[in-house]
Amino acid sequence: MSLITSLSAIEILDSRGRPTVKAYCTLASGARAEAAVPSGASTGTAEALELRDGDPQRYHGLGCRKAVENVKTVIRDALVGKDFDTQAALDTALIELDGTPNKAKLGANAILAVSLAFARAQANEKGIPLYQHFAAMNNNAMPLLPHLTVNLFSGGKHAGGQVPIQDVLLVPHSRSVDDALATTYNVYQAAVKLISEKYGMRPLKADEGGLAPPFPNVEAMLSDAVEAIKRAGYTPGQEVSLAVDVASSQFYSDGRYHINNQALDSSGMVNLLLDWIARFPIISVEDGLAEEDWGGWGKFYRAAYDKVMIIGDDLLCTNPRRIRIAIDYHAANSLLLKVNQIGTLTEALESYQLARDAGWQVVVSARSGETEDSWLADLATGWAGDYIKVGSIMQSERLAKYNRLLEIETVDGLTIHTYDSMPIEDLHVSADSVAALKSYGISTVGEIVELLEQNLRGNFAMDGIGRGILDHLDVILVQLKGKGIWPENP
Ligand code: PGA
Ligand code: ZN
Fold this sequence. Notes:
Blueprint: E1 2-13, E2 19-27, E3 32-36, H1 65-79, E4 83-84, H2 87-98, H3 108-126, H4 130-137, E5 147-154, E6 167-172, H5 177-199, H6 218-231, E7 240-245, E8 252-253, E9 256-259, E10 262-264, H7 266-279, E11 282-286, H8 294-304, E12 309-312, H9 320-329, E13 334-337, H10 339-342, H11 345-357, E14 361-365, H12 375-382, E15 387-391, H13 396-410, H14 431-439, H15 445-457, H16 470-482
Parallel strand pairs: 5-15, 7-11, 11-12, 12-13, 13-14, 14-15
Antiparallel strand pairs: 1-2, 1-4, 2-3, 5-6, 6-7, 8-9, 9-10
Helix pairs in contact: 1-2, 1-3, 2-3, 3-4, 4-12, 5-6, 7-8, 9-11, 12-13, 14-16
């Protein structure tokens, strides 16, 4: 039982110098914690509401004094003196207290700050690291470090709009956070040199620390990224791949995508995305289509679901209702999880679990306006997200998360996410399939992948392992593919 004895909040500034909320929570055991919430710029329209003061004389209306006041009055009065067994119990109380579908009354910034501060206070109460507390919340016996996706080049709303798309990110194929960061540093430095030669300028940085020279078009941005990977001595697609956040809602108007001096319809945009995938070593495309262009999402899914991760950010807004629709509609195969889009840990966890049950991959993401708080690194590890997206390696609000991942890796000895040792039960296949696999001595995902690699290369010569297993392979293959662990060249 965790009895709340005090709750408070203050207004602090995020990495863009805009106000945000930091909350403090104390429990009867004496455990105490604080947590700060981030804030987006290229936001989805279905996001929970960030309560802002609207006073034009102060921070252009962006002040958070009302949200802070809500923590110190309405929320404190309702929660202090009460016992909350679980995070879900606390978050339900917060949701009911607000009573609106998008947290418009108390503000998602106020609510999430309390939700997070309580989680950290409970971890302190139990005397365990925050990632372990998050793992327990998700019934996850094996916290794992995520793979990194690191912002290299920026455009769109996070930069000066030189190119319409928002980010080109590096995805090092490293087996440790330490190696991923060292690799990223090398590519980032090669890119700094490249753009100073090519564009004759010192490296201007965008909101998340990505480099933002005046690329003539998106293709130049992508080929410069590939060039930087090569110059740093890595093989594109084998040692370092690319991810793109197209953030296409930002350049979609009147049913057209305004990009590369063209006004493309849905099919035109899908073809453009397919062209990028064919020409560059891209493993994931985020918000390739606008948030209201469901038809476009369906087209892209049908053409690319087995080639790349199709990630919904603005489309899904970490909202369970929207994720259910996207699963039914076959609009995406991966979730960008941003806790402040929905406003409580419990609802974000529901989103996470829905995505996982559909065989999707999950990218745990920071916002463009961040703070020095590092809870996101613990969340990505505890919930075992496949990837984390934090921004570049050049600003302290980003490094707080990377440094926390390094700490978890070096001090606590956790390893980066691989499916090799995942028990087959976790694939959500039928009990029959699990029993069949076990009868062949297979108990981990790594063993299935090994088996597939050996046997599919030999033209489906399955005799050595018995034909019975074939009956179950189809469902297992779908699950493996959904989790991005299909052997590369079957
Ligand atoms: P935002 O950007 O935090 O400004 O929404 C991040 C993203 O689009 O992924
Ligand atoms: Zn995005």
